[in-house]
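Dear Dr. H.,

I hope your travels went smoothly. While you were away I took the liberty of generating a structure for the chain from your last submission, since the lab meeting agenda had it listed for discussion. I wanted you to have the full record in hand beforehand rather than looking at slides cold. The sequence, exactly as received, is reproduced here:
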Amino acid sequence: MASTPIGGLQCPFREFHCCSDGREGGKGVSHLVPHLKALHLCSEERRSMLWEAIEGDLGLFMAVGESLKGLKQWLCGRCMHIHALSRACHHSDGLVRVTLESEEVRSHIIGILKPYIKDSDFLGAKDGLVLDARLLEKVLQAPVFTVKSIPHSCRLAFSHALKEALYKVVAQPSSVGAWVQLLLLPQCTL
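The corresponding predicted structure, in token form, is as follows:
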């Protein structure tokens, strides 16, 4: 699923609430927070649905955290409102604030526990390499500048890597790990 970045950031909730894939016409980061508040966090029902989705999906938790980090905002998990890092969230039983760890925010999502990784979340694991579907999607969507030709000094090494990746796919055509390695080879090396 391709999406258009908003000032370098994407709407982390682009799969929810008929979001037009997070597109805001390239107006910049300043329009992502109003987009999130107006479309995704506008009603109690939507906030509750997103809370459950964030709590149960590690990929979504990480995507929301990255977006909030880029926006210099944080999300209160109790009321599901977005705040600037310097602001606290006021509740009847006290304040909720972000916690700093060596002048950096420990988490941009407060009040929602980070989901644990389930075995079903993996595409495959081999040699300590864990392949996550959302990570693969993010890597393939990343705007990467590739070289037009492989430098002479690197051609032999690249041909060996490409040959090995192709042989793995031919030998195990149903192996998701082999296909992922083949797909990521040009993205990561060129």
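Two observations you may find useful: Residues 144 and 188 are 9 Å apart (CA to CA). The beta strands are 73-76, 81-84, 89-91, 94-96, 100-101, 104-105, 109-110, 122-126, 129-132.

With kind regards,
E. W.
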